[in-house]
Design brief:
The chain is built from six helices and seven strands; from the N terminus they run αααβαβαβββαββ. By secondary structure, the chain is of the alpha/beta class. The C terminus is likely disordered.
């Protein structure tokens, strides 16, 4: 019986270093993941890219926005647009502050589904932000990189009764790229 108990002791002692090694590996993996995630979310460029991707998911449907008797903030953007990425944190802050009172609609110009809106609002440079009063009247258009203060002032003016149309154009914008991914040709059968 003493031989059996010695064997059990030897087996449990040999497993202990393996368990410690596995625990160290798991701990190192967890620390690595935490460090990578903290780097990604501290990097403003990557955070802006994430914000742009989330805009489309968090968007109010434009049909609903123009019929629910609330002012509307409509932004045309693209994930490849550097100026859009640069403005994304400001737009996100505006959305967080005003989303209870204003519809926020984000339309990616690369999505052909929004082609009628792109034509209707003559979008040829992005980001383009259009502000509408609660009746759906276009009040302001911002094209290109804008100062958050200007946009904020225009949002506050949406509450006023008399609002003249204003257009703000900055030379820093991205020209819309032609999307040839979904083009139909006679040979595409599509």
């Amino acid at each position: 019986m003493s031989l059996v108990s010695n064997t059990v002791i030897v087996q449990s002692e040999s497993r202990e270093p393996i368990l410690k090694a596995n625990l160290k590996t798991i701990l190192i993996a967890i620390i690595s993941v935490v460090m990578i995630l903290s780097f990604l979310f501290r990097n403003p460029f990557l955070k802006s890219t994430y914000l742009l991707k989330s805009f489309g998911e968090l968007s109010v449907d434009p049909v609903i926005a123009f019929t629910n008797n609330k002012p509307t903030f409509l932004e045309f953007y693209a994930e490849w647009c550097e100026v859009c990425k640069e403005m994304a944190p400001q737009v996100s802050a505006l959305k967080d502050e005003y989303e209870k009172d204003i519809n926020f609609v984000f339309l990616n110009v690369d999505n052909q589904k929004w082609g009628n809106y792109i034509q209707q609002f003559a979008v040829n440079g992005i980001p383009q932000v259009n502000l509408f009063d609660k009746k759906g009247n276009l009040i302001s258009t911002f094209i290109g990189k804008q100062d958050e203060i200007k946009i904020r002032e225009s949002i506050k003016n949406l509450q006023k009764e008399e609002k003249p149309y204003e257009e703000f154009i900055n030379a820093e914008f991205s020209k819309i790229q032609e999307n040839k991914n979904n083009e139909v040709s006679p040979r595409s059968h599509g």
